[in-house]
Write a structure and sequence with these properties.
Layout: E1 24-28, H1 35-41, E2 44-48, H2 49-54, H3 66-82, H4 86-93
Antiparallel strand pairs: 1-2
Length: 98
């Protein structure tokens, strides 16, 4: 049985956050070694497959820039509004994206 992923940004995990398409991948905003932190804080977002990894400038094609940076900044703003300071964010996620 797969995990139930959730997002602080949307209640609809079955449609792309940006386009509304029903064909989505669930993107962990902080991936790699911080994937579990994304799940803990709800920093997972449904996005169309071409925005996730298949298209030019997709979040994995263009890491830390463009849409990937936008999502990381959204998550950091949420964290700083709901969980702690920028310093707290840096301690947990490794750096500031602002």
């Amino acid at each position: 049985m797969s995990k139930k992923l959730w997002s602080v940004f949307t209640d609809d995990m079955d449609h792309c956050y940006f386009t509304g398409t029903p064909y989505v991948h669930r993107h962990h905003i902080f991936y790699g070694s911080r994937r579990e932190l994304s799940e803990k804080y709800g920093y997972v977002i449904p996005i169309a497959s071409y925005l996730h990894e298949f298209g030019i400038n997709s979040v994995h094609d263009n890491p830390n820039r463009g849409m990937d940076l936008q999502l990381k900044q959204m998550a950091q703003e949420h964290f700083e509004s709901h969980h702690g300071t920028r310093e707290d964010f840096i301690k947990i996620f490794g750096r500031s994206w602002m």
